[in-house]
């Protein structure tokens, strides 16, 4: 399976970061790839593993940067900035987790 080692490393490091958060703490997960297996799939697996986090809404951020970046409309979680050769950036994927407070 292509990318499975990278996927495992990304999940493990993200879980470690989440474990270090205090309730209410924020973790930004970001990559520089178009790979769904390293972007939305990792986020989905983190959410399915019940690490005690929830996703934060990034609509305001997307709106604030919509005149600069072109965002993919096909991203399940977070934001995916599509590459732009003229400006020499991208791809960029970002999502934001917030650690839940215990019940």
Description:
α1 (4-20) crosses α2. Helices cover 32% and strands 19% of the residues. The protein has helices at 4-20, 40-48, 59-65; strands spanning 26-31, 53-55, 79-81, 92-99. The protein is α+β, with helices and mostly antiparallel strands and 103 residues long. The longest helix has 17 residues, at 4-20. The model has no long low-confidence stretch (mean pLDDT 90). It contains 3 helices and 4 strands, in the order αβαβαββ. Strands 1, 2, 3 and 4 form a 4-stranded antiparallel sheet that branches.
Keywords:
single chain, 103 residues, alpha+beta, four-stranded antiparallel β-sheet, 4 strands, 19% strand
Radius of gyration: 14 Å
Helix count equals 3
What is the string of helix and strand elements? HEHEHEE
Largest sheet: 4 strands, antiparallel
- Can you give the helix content as a percent range? 25-40%
Strand content: 15-25%
Average pLDDT, rounded to a whole number, is 90
Overall, the morphology is globular
Structural classification: alpha+beta
Total beta strands? 4
Residue stretches low in confidence (pLDDT < 50, at least 5 long) are none
Spatial gap, N to C terminus: 38 Å
